[in-house]
């Protein structure tokens, strides 16, 4: 830290993203990225966008916003695009929280929320999950805070029913409730809170292209809410980064959004691989939570989780461990292709010095 760094941020601990190693032959199951390439139309769309790079990008991302609005069944004025959902989370917290309006979130959830609060000077209200990592909506009454819920949650992989979210929305009519649905496309039909947006002016649904649309590197997210909320967030966006989405990413996102068939096929493949991987771990004595995401949250039966992480890392298989209370014994494993999962299990069995479990 230099002597010029502002003292108000001196205590800030930045978020630690999953590492991005440039090593050949790496099986990368540590950042919940999609193992499949973007939809086939994305490359041509990005190529076509190059000619337009001379100009600034579209301030309103008209093409992308309209593609999203069509897919979500809402008017375009209900949609805001962002530079990843991380940016939309920042815009929302900046717009709807301040010293007098804290942000409430679970003790075990996306660890970027507390970092954003610290960056923006927003007080935090941490609400513990139950012993089994499920969310009790009754805990979100009378908090006097805006709320963010990752649903399905990360890193637990668990989905709370939309009825639980609705209960929280109704108990907090004067606060914004942000539902971060980064993983909802892997959760099956009826999991999304999008249908609730129409009846709840305090609901903001945050989505991303990083997971189910294979565009993590394009940095694209969007959120859906009633036009008042979207207008508030636009005021913040136009006060700090009006051209937040670059033209190539906009083109990539629009092309990915239009290819529903590819989207369905890749999501189905990941869900199928997820079921097989969960079974493989359970056969080896692991406790595996019922995942509604593109990753598994699992507890090994014998060796400490951090040791397994290291043993796999030596074999060029990256997974994720959080050295945090309540989840120190757990590991988060992103779902890769079937071949990558085979590499994961081979490395695991080799590290454990055991023959593969009979199946
Ligand atoms: N929310 C959750 C719950 C996440 O796990 C992630 C991915 N790290 C994000 C948001 C951020 O996604 P994006 O790539 O769209 O910024």
How would you describe this protein?
The protein is globular, with a radius of gyration of 21 Å. The longest helix has 24 residues, at 260-283. Helix content is 34%, strand content 13%. The chain has helices spanning 41-50, 62-72, 85-96, 112-120, 162-171, 227-237, 247-258, 260-283, 305-314, 338-351, and strands at 27-28, 79-82, 103-106, 124-127, 146-150, 177-180, 203-208, 221-225, 287-288, 295-299, 317-318, 331-334. The model has no long low-confidence stretch (mean pLDDT 96). It is of the alpha/beta class and 359 residues long. α3 (85-96) crosses α6 (227-237). 4'-deoxy-4'-aminopyridoxal-5'-phosphate (PMP) is lined by residues 84-86, 110, 150, 154, 180, 182, 208, 210, 216, 221.
């Amino acid at each position: 830290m230099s002597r010029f760094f502002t003292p108000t941020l001196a205590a800030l601990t930045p978020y630690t993203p999953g590492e991005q190693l440039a090593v050949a032959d790496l099986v990368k199951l540590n950042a919940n990225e999609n193992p499949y390439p973007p939809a086939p139309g994305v490359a041509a769309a990005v190529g076509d966008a190059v000619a337009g790079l001379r100009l600034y990008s579209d301030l309103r991302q008209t093409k992308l916003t309209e593609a999203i609005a069509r897919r979500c069944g809402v008017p375009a004025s209900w949609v805001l695009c962002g530079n990843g959902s991380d940016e939309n989370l920042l815009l929302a917290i900046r717009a709807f929280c301040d010293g007098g309006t804290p942000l409430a979130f679970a003790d075990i959830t996306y660890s970027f929320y507390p970092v954003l609060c610290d960056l923006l000077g927003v007080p935090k209200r941490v609400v513990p999950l139950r012993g089994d990592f499920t969310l009790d909506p009754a805990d979100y009454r009378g908090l006097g805070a805006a709320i963010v819920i990752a649903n399905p949650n990360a890193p637990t992989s668990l989905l709370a029913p939309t009825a639980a979210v609705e209960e929280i929305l109704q108990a907090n009519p004067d606060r914004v409730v942000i539902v971060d649905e980064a993983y909802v496309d892997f959760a099956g039909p009826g999991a999304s809170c999008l249908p609730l947006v129409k009846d709840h002016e305090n609901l903001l649904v945050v989505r991303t292209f990083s997971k189910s649309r294979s565009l993590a590197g394009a940095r694209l997210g969007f959120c859906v809410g009633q036009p008042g909320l979207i207008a508030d967030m636009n005021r913040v966006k136009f006060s700090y980064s009006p051209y937040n989405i670059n033209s190539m990413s906009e083109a990539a996102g629009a092309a990915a959004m239009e290819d529903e068939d590819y989207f369905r096929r890749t999501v189905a493949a990941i869900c199928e691989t997820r079921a097989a991987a969960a079974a493989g771990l359970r056969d080896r004595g692991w406790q595996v939570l019922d995942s509604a995401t593109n990753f598994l949250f699992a507890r090994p039966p014998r060796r400490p989780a951090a040791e397994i992480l290291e043993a796999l890392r030596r074999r060029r298989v990256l997974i994720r461990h959080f050295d945090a209370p309540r989840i120190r014994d757990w590991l988060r494993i992103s779902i890769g292709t079937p071949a990558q999962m085979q590499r994961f299990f081979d490395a695991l069995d080799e590290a454990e010095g055991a023959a593969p479990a009979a199946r």
